[in-house]
Amino acid sequence: MVDLQGQYLHIQPLIDAKLKEVTASAQFINGDEVKSFQKELENYLSIKHVIPCANGTDALQIAMMGLNLQPGDEVITVDFTFAATVEVIALLGLKPVLVDVYPDTFNMDVDALQKAITPKTKAIVPVHLFGQCANMEAILKIAKAHNLFVIEDTAQAIGADYIFKDGIHKKAGTMGAVGTTSFFPSKNLGAYGDGGALFTNDDLLAEKLRSIVNHGMSKRYYYNRIGVNSRLDSMQAAVLRIKLPFLDSYAQARQKAANFYDKAFANYDKISIPKRSVFSTHVFHQYTLKLVGVDRDALHEFLKSQKIPNAIYYPVPLHKQEAYKHFKFDTDQLEVTKELCQTVISLPMHTELELEQLSFITNKILDFIEQV
Ligand SMILES: *Cc1c(COP(=O)(O)O)cnc(C)c1O
To answer: How much is the pTM?
Structure first.
């Protein structure tokens, strides 16, 4: 699905020299690399504060702690996402409320969000799924009307632009109260291990988040609140500093591959290509097809037999997962997610895809589609 080795080979001299430098400095935690990365990412995103942390799941949890969400508070997110989003809500004793997504963009359905709001709702967590922003203008309006926090899960969409109706562009993750992201190796900005970050323009909240990632410490050995231990280490920050200047060109490489796939599948009724929203650029964390009247699992097996990587994101809705059943979700309202879990399939998507590989992949898929 990804080619991290191929990507590394293009930047090997830079990475190898930098990692040697970090090793020699022996500043492994909270060193200059982390501080520099923080500043560089703040500049890239045009945001006042980036708070690095250990991974994208922690980032979500720390955001909810920083916003002082309390047990019993309801947090609305989507049924069609990676489990981390719901996991942290549950871990903090908050109540997850799952809403459906749009069948074409896979992002939060704004009408469903509106309907799910109760007097207990405190926060909304839109997930910018597969590399494209949710409808933030509508979500922010609803949040404002009901006095709710918006936490943007940007693990899959770092670098994507949201385009407001007045033409203003903002980076994914910089529009809500807090944005969170992941630097897991296969993400669009991937480290060589775990990593994550939070983004905010709120000075007071930033100070609080910085304290929470470091055991709730205010000054050395004085603790104002209960925190966690969640750090980005210097090696990861060093890798991320090298990769950040390439992030936009990485997105272009992904868009190029997506356009190739689009063209190849354009004239086939049995294949529905991913829709681009008018209000967002797409950085293609995943390229995800929807199949119409084709056995998705059979295609999955066929591609595996042809040694073509492919994946099902996601095979089971969160509301059907054993771990979350006790929340008794309103499952009648989650029909789109149920359907998507049966019909989606994601194709290889990364920065190193060659034309030859792309035509091999698309030809095999079309062979299969034409047979059935
Ligand atoms: C990857 C991911 C996360 C979690 O990030 P980790 O760094 O793996 O903890 C959270 N939300 C979404 C949507 C993700 O894709």
So the answer is: 0.97
Handedness of CA 170, 97, 345, 349 (dihedral sign): positive
Rounded CA-CA distance 179/63 in Å is 8
Antiparallel, parallel or unpaired: β 287-291 and 344-347: antiparallel
- What ligand 1 atom has the least distance to the C-alpha of 129? 13
Cβ-contact 209, 50 below 8 angstroms: no
CA distances from 223 to 49, 196, 213, 350 (A): 22, 23, 12, 43
Rounded to the nearest whole angstrom, what is the distance from the C-alpha of residue 224 to the centroid of ligand 1?
Answer: 28
For the domain spanning 247-370, the CATH number is 3.90.1150.10
- The one-digit pLDDT tens for each residue of the chain (372 residues) are 999 999 999 999 999 999 999 999 999 998 899 999 999 999 999 999 999 999 999 999 999 999 999 999 999 999 999 999 999 999 999 999 999 999 999 999 999 999 999 999 999 999 999 999 999 999 999 999 999 999 999 999 999 999 999 999 999 999 999 999 999 999 999 999 999 999 999 999 999 999 999 999 988 999 999 999 999 999 999 999 999 999 999 999 999 999 999 999 999 999 999 999 999 999 999 999 999 999 999 999 999 999 999 999 999 999 999 999 999 998 999 999 999 999 999 999 999 999 999 999 999 999 999 987
CATH code 3.40.640.10 for 4-99+106-245: yes
CA of 181 to the centre of ligand 1 (A): 7
- Element of type H or E holding 145: helix 136-146
Exposure of 80 in the CB half-sphere (CA atoms within 13 A): 28
Start-end ranges of CATH 3.40.640.10 in the chain? Answer: 4-99+106-245
Pocket of ligand 1 (CB under 6 A): 55-57, 81-82, 84-85, 127, 153, 155-156, 182, 184, 194, 196
Residue 12: both structure tokens together: 């090997």
Q: Peptide bond preceding 314: is omega within 30 degrees of 0, i.e. cis?
A: yes
Enumerate residues 6+ apart whose C-beta is below 8 A from 184: 55, 56, 155, 190, 191, 194, 195
Nearest CA to ligand 1 atom 1: 155
Q: Which atom in ligand 1 lies closest to the alpha carbon of residue 187?
A: 1
